[in-house]
Amino acid sequence: MKQNPLRRDHLDDFVKCYRPGEPRTHRSETERFRPFDYEDLMARDKVNLDITWLKDPSLEGADALLPPEVIAQEIVEDLEAALSEFAAIAEALQQARARSAES
Fold this sequence. Notes:
Helix content is 47%, strand content 0%. The chain is mostly helical. The chain has helices at residues 12-18, 38-43, 68-102. The chain has 2 domains: 1-60, no CATH class; 66-103.
């Protein structure tokens, strides 16, 4: 996800089709989002909800995955960044408490 982080605009097409807060009859079908009848789902082999028409070719096999050392390094970087953010929050809270104690 670091190379292509999920952003709100990635969900715009879904929200536009789903129309939260409106009746289901107002929802619109697109190439990516469409309703299925129960009978259609039950007629499928293995009766599952796999979305077979939306396969990501970059995930077709273990050869396409990043090497474990790269994945591990990205995890370390993400955790270090999170720890740094939490440390900054803790420091800001301590400073705010000190200021309010001085008042």
